[in-house]
Amino acid sequence: MIRVVALCVIRNKDQILVMEHRDPATQLTHYRPVGGTLEYGEKSMETVAREVWEEIGAGLTNLRFLKVIENVFKVKPHGLEIGHTIDFIYEADLVDKSLYSKSLIEGVEGTEKFRVLWISLHEFKGTNKYHLVPDGLLELLEETM
């Protein structure tokens, strides 16, 4: 099944706001911009604004489309199963400027809580510590700096 997702890149100088997720299948931690799955009949721009509001309680301004990234990835160790997403990538600014000075924001999706934090783009390069998804996003962000 292909999942259609809208993600919002929010920059703070050389950092981006990302949510932290530990994959229970692979036991790996990865990071991605805040966002989520499109609902039936919803446009991707509406999804990204809704998801940012639902997950971190923040409004957006200057919302602009960057690119679509198609991502095929392993969801289980040793490549036993794959995932497939079509990711609409947007960039925006936060309405609440105080969020730019917070090192950690608590995110919520339903009853699940997660960490949302600012990480410098160079931390994602050539390191196993921080893995930015979807694949290809780091290169896109470096091109648009």
From TrEMBL:
Keyword Nucleotidyltransferase in annotation: no
Q: Which UniProt keywords apply?
A: Hydrolase
- Pfam families, per the entry: NUDIX (PF00293)
Q: List the molecular function annotations (GO) for this entry.
A: hydrolase activity
Record CDD domains: NUDIX_Hydrolase
Per the record, the coiled-coil ranges are none
Stretches assigned to the Nudix hydrolase domain: 1-145
Superkingdom assignment:
Bacteria
User: Its family?
Assistant: Belongs to the Nudix hydrolase family.
Identify this protein by name.
NUDIX domain-containing protein
Taxonomic lineage is:
Bacteria, Bacillati, Bacillota, Bacilli, Bacillales
